[in-house]
Specification:
alpha/beta; four-stranded parallel beta sheet; 8 helices; about 15% strand; elongated
């Protein structure tokens, strides 16, 4: 929105709420609206990828994706496998051997979530710790409900409570995103466990709340704001090219941009607690 406003353009937001039917509805509406550019701020539903590719042939379109395999469409990419690997490596370096990974539903629609889990698990397997990661995912029905502002926080809290009630053994929890990790921190503290002295917690996204001193969440930054700016910049370049009097001789360019994720170490991770109760 910031980049578009700077260039004199307006932005309409279509929130699919993870609902395939809503996504299809918005795709039909977009055809009638004929906007000058489209930014897909999530991976297209697998059933609509061909429609998105067709639309991109006539309207500048950028997908902010997670290594989506659409080579013909401009994309701001993210390697979620590498994100998961970074999370795991940080915990392994701190001596954590038994850990849990909490996540929203691992559905076909949200396959990129599984990539982050896979990267995390593989890093533990490489360290000879196969079977030392507990995966706890929310029920698929969650993705069929309209999301609320506290949905992912509530999932993180509930999944952590279930781990504690099961008597699962772990010294660290990784959250699929920061809001889930913050929910995990609150659940641990409500159970009178100290973070990070008893249990370490790591999230992903580096949202604003994670940097607040009282939260101080260790997380992975994958530069969400910059991805949005880059996506809009690409749209503007394509619009300019289309409007150029020399557009017929302009080369056809496909942009693929990718940032390397970065670990942000704060106050919710520390060395694993030893069996004797010492760090």
């Amino acid at each position: 929105e910031a980049v578009a406003n700077e260039r004199g353009y307006g932005v309409f937001i279509c929130n699919t709420q993870r609902d395939a039917r809503l996504e299809e509805k918005y795709l039909r509406m977009i055809r009638a609206m004929a906007p000058q550019g489209i930014i897909y701020a999530c991976n297209p539903h697998p059933d609509y990828i061909s429609q998105v590719e067709e639309m991109a042939r006539s309207i500048p379109l950028v997908i902010i994706s997670n290594k989506e395999k659409i080579s013909t469409v401009d994309a701001i990419n993210q390697d979620n496998t590498e994100v998961g690997r970074l999370m795991a490596r940080h915990l392994l370096d701190l001596g954590h051997r038994d850990v849990a990974f909490i996540t929203p539903p691992l559905t076909r629609r949200q396959w990129q979530r599984s990539k982050r889990v896979d990267g995390f698990v593989r890093e533990f397997e490489k360290a000879g710790l196969s079977g030392h990661v507990i995966i706890r995912a929310a029920d698929e029905s969650v993705d069929r409900r309209n999301p609320k502002t506290d949905s992912e926080y509530s999932m993180g809290y509930a999944l952590t409570r279930s781990l504690l009630e099961d008597g699962s053994r772990f010294t660290a929890i990784a959250g699929q995103n920061d809001m889930m990790a913050i929910g995990a921190v609150d659940a641990l503290q409500d159970a009178r466990l100290r973070v990070p002295k008893d249990v370490s917690v790591i999230g992903c996204d580096n949202i604003f709340y994670s940097g607040i001193r009282r939260v101080s969440l260790t997380t992975i930054d994958h530069f969400v704001d910059l991805k949005g700016r880059d996506a809009c910049d690409i749209i503007m370049k394509k619009i300019l090219s289309q409007n150029s009097q020399y557009s017929e001789i302009q080369p056809i360019s496909t942009y693929h941009v990718e940032y390397e994720p970065r670990l942000i170490v704060r106050g919710t991770t520390s060395y694993a607690k030893t069996k004797k109760g010492k760090n």
